[in-house]
Amino acid sequence: MNDEGLTATLVGAFSALSVLLVFVTVLYSLRYQSVLDALDAEIPKDKPKAAGGLSKRLYETMIFHWGPVAFLIAICFYVTTPLAIQIIGTSSFNPVSFDFLQTAFVLVWVVVGLFTFSSWRIMYKLFLRYQECKTYSA
Question: Measured between alpha carbons, how far is 13 from 8 in angstroms, rounded to an integer?
Fold first, then answer.
């Protein structure tokens, strides 16, 4: 792909990605505190019924609250990866003279990758906490 074609592709990718990332970021911020609350809840080890209730809460948080966030951010990362790899593969490192659009896209891709890792790490913590809680429930 020539530079003009790549630039047009990057402009279109940024337009589509910006809308999706704003939505995911808002969703992340709205649900993050409830996820932390669910993770920090004390497991009532001597009360099986209460542990069962917490287990249900953790499951619902994992699947219905945090699952969509982790899934959407993973889609953002997946969709941007081929273009980022193409840019990295065809670019040369020059700290003085560089293409701002390509550099910005790769940086956004890295941030989205870290965001994806963080989201799925939280999902894994929810799953482990859910499994731990299930051992004490009736």
Answer: 9
